[in-house]
Amino acid sequence: MSAKIKYILIALVVFSNPAKASDDWGVTGHRTIGAIAQQYLDPEVANEVTELLDGASLAFVSTYADEIRSDDQYDRFVPWHYVNFPFGEDYHSHPKSSKGDIIMAIEKCSEIIKDRSKSKDERAFYLKLLVHFVGDLHQPLHVGIQEDRGGNRFYVKWFGESTNLHSVWDTKLIEGYNMSYSELVTNQDRLTAEEVEQIQLSSVSDWMDESRALCEDIYAHTEPEEKLSYAYSYRYLHTVRGRLQKGGLRLAALLNDLL
Ligand code: ADE
Ligand code: ZN
Ligand code: ZN
Asked: Distance between CA atoms of 259 and 255, rounded to whole angstroms?
């Protein structure tokens, strides 16, 4: 390979847009949320979802919004995966991003999905996005701060490997659990009917507030360049499993309402 081509290849890797490398909850996290939601759909709603998705499951389509992220054609959806505002401030009083955010994204997707005058293709597209964004909103660092891009520039070590706090929360904690998404679904915490109802009764704004409170807790308990390993997993694994379960229950409630 000529030196010039090598230089171009290295420059491409170094200067490529880091926002596009993100994987959010990761495949396992998103599929867990989708599969839990599928269990709680009303039967008629489940039929309509299957019809819209040409037979695919919510777990299967849950990663679609990340798959299209590397395609320039879908650039306008990138800011829809998260919201950032300063600690100590309130989402509703902080100026909104003109490019949209995850709260506005969930509203927009919801409007289109429930509008039966829209085409099947359009409703299916926004349904796939909604499944993903409800998941992302339950990842605490997706209700983050702009300075470090929701922890993407908060560098830490994870069992000796250089990574960042966002990635620890998207994937590393879940991967450390070493379970497939279906095993995670089978091993959900057992909840009473009242607990399920209580979790589902909340609003999109409540889901954001919970993630923000967890995000503040995470920043209070993590130092830049910290070496994270077993103690960190032990502290937060139950939190992560709870966020996946809540995300699934609420996605089902939202779809039951929209359809
Ligand atoms: N990019 C910038 N901020 C982000 C966040 N909070 N989550 C994911 N990606 C981001
Ligand atoms: Zn993420
Ligand atoms: Zn995402």
From this structure: 6
Q: Whose CA is nearest to atom 3 of ligand 1?
A: 149
Superfamily of domain 27-258, CATH level 4: P1 Nuclease (1.10.575.10)
Q: How far is the CA of 43 from the centre of ligand 2 (A)?
A: 31
Check: CB of residue 29 under 8 Å from CB of residue 139.
Answer: yes
Helices and strands of the chain, counted as H and E runs: 13, 5
Q: What is the pLDDT of residues 45-76, one digit of tens each?
A: 999 999 999 999 999 999 999 999 989 999 99
CA distance 151 to 156: 10
Q: What is the mean pLDDT of the chain?
A: 93
Q: Whose CA is nearest to atom 2 of ligand 1?
A: 149
Instruction: Decide: helix, strand or coil at residue 161.
Output: strand
CA–CA distance, 108 with 86 (Å, rounded to integer): 24
